Amino acid sequence: MASKTVVDPEGRTWKVRRRWGHRSVSWRGPKGGRAADLLDGADLASVGAELPVVGVIMVAIAALLIGVMAVVFIIPALIFALELLLILTAVALGVLSRVLFRRPWTVEARVKGAEHGDEWKVTGWRASGDLVDSVAGQLQATGQIRPSVG
Predict the structure, then answer these.
(1) CB-count burial class (<10 Å; 0-12, 13-18, 19+) for 75
(2) Are 147 and 131 contacting, i.e. CB atoms less than 8 angstroms apart?
(3) What is the pLDDT of residues 38-51, one digit of tens each?
(4) CB atoms within 10 A of CB 135
(5) Which of 25, 67, 97, 122 could be 128's S-S partner, Cβ–Cβ 3.0 to 4.6 Å?
(6) Are residues 92 and 67 in the same domain?
(7) What is the count of structural domains for the chain?
(8) Which residues are bridge partners to 119 per DSSP?
(9) Is 16 in a helix, a strand, or coil?
(10) Which domain holds residue 39?
(11) pLDDT tens digits, residue range 54-97?
């Protein structure tokens, strides 16, 4: 992502960047789910009938440890992997849609701490990066913006 921070002759700090979208997106993982659902199909009572008491206790402890390990390590790792795959797919589709449909990139320049600044719509990844460089250079040299979009 093209982004530059420059200081103009008056001492103001400017951030010039290529923006992906119009609003920020908050990603939240799935919530809920029961750890007990993992053992719904387990039939440990029939296993215990053929084993001595110590064996039943050992099997119960092993099952408990496996369940705890699944809840603590395996399930969160799987959820993380699925969310990461979802995010990577969304980013890839976003870039692909911008390239295929030639949607313009938004280049913005604003003073640090300000909510709004100047912005331009530029078609093309390279052209938007060139505009970021041009605007940053002009701000650093003169403190004024005269972009040449074309």
Answers:
(1) middle
(2) yes
(3) 444 444 455 545 55
(4) 25
(5) 122
(6) yes
(7) 2
(8) 108
(9) strand
(10) 35-98
(11) 888 888 999 999 999 988 998 899 999 999 999 999 989 988 88
